[in-house]
Amino acid sequence: MRTSQWSAWRPLVAALVGSIAVAAAAQSWTFDGDAQGWQARDLTSYTEIGDASDVVWNETGGASGGYISKFDPSVRSYFLEAPIAAGSDYSSFVGGSLAFSLRSDFNDWVNDNVVIFRGVTGGVSTTIVTTVPVPDPTGAWLSYTVDLDAANFHVGSRDGSAPSAVQFAEIMGSLSTFLLPGEFGNGVKETTGIDSVRFTAIPEPSTYAALVGGAALALVAIRRYRRR
Ligand SMILES: [Ca+2]
Q1: What pTM did the predictor assign?
Q2: Is 226 helix (H, G, I), strand (E, B) or coil?
């Protein structure tokens, strides 16, 4: 392709990329500049969110760039908490996914390897959890993906029943708490790191239609350009 041709195509390509970015609605934290408001929480149970404490921000060494980490603050089980304002609407991510990277230097505590959400359904503050794999004790970064489907979650504890699709959507639409696991050591000894946290929605049918329409327009424009 000659440079003059590329300069003509560039606006079209930019428009396409832009529409794709809109389609893939996302909420993410990369920790490349600071801890982005995340903190640690000590829990006595999944439904009792305990004391908050600071996390350490590390400028380098993450799965990509910077990351946050926390040394076990107590004999209780700790989690890393996103700065979610009460009543945050994450319902657009239902059916989509949550991805994050995690590392820890121990994996001999396999009781609290869960992701926790808390929101309101039927007027009641409700905690739901989903179990995730324990990390590799070498401290290697492990990539996690959690499908945000009701059947993948349990109410109250790891053994609880699954929320209904309606309950799950209500909880995700009224989030007050989002916790990633930190407790992987049997004792007060582990440091757990978190990086590259990202919620991704599945594009809605109308968005696909807009994408296809945009692509068709771009093709027409490209053909017209070539005929000149
Ligand atoms: Ca990072």
Answers
A1: 0.81
A2: helix
Q: Do 171 and 86 meet the contact criterion of CB atoms below 8 Å apart?
A: no
Instruction: Provide the pLDDT for residue 220.
Output: 79
Phi-psi region of 196 (alpha: psi -120 to 50; beta: other; left: phi over 0): left
- 113 Cα: distance to centroid of ligand 1 (angstroms): 21
| CATH value of 25-201 in 3.40.30.10, 1.10.260.40, 2.60.120.430, 3.40.1350.10 | 2.60.120.430
Q: Mention every residue, 6+ apart, whose C-beta is less than 8 A from residue 44.
A: 50, 76
* Spacing, Cα 196 to ligand 1 middle (Å): 5
Give dist(CA 179, CA 168) in Å, integer: 16
Torsion angle of the four alpha carbons 85, 86, 89, 93, in this order, in degrees rounded to the nearest 10: 80
Give residues whose Cβ lies within 5 Å of ion ligand 1: 30-32, 62, 64-66, 195
Residue 165: per-residue pLDDT? 98
Query: Please, what is the average pLDDT of the chain?
Result: 90
The rounded Å distance from CA 41 to ligand 1 centre is 21
The Cα–Cα gap between 191 and 188 comes to 9
List the chain domain ranges: 1-24+203-228, 25-201
CA–centroid distance, residue 143 to ligand 1 (Å): 13
Nearby residues of 119 by Cβ (< 8 Å), 6 or more positions away:
125, 126, 170, 171, 172, 173, 174, 175, 176, 177
Distance between CA 113 and CA 58 in Å, rounded?
23
Residues of the chain with pLDDT under 50: 1, 21-23
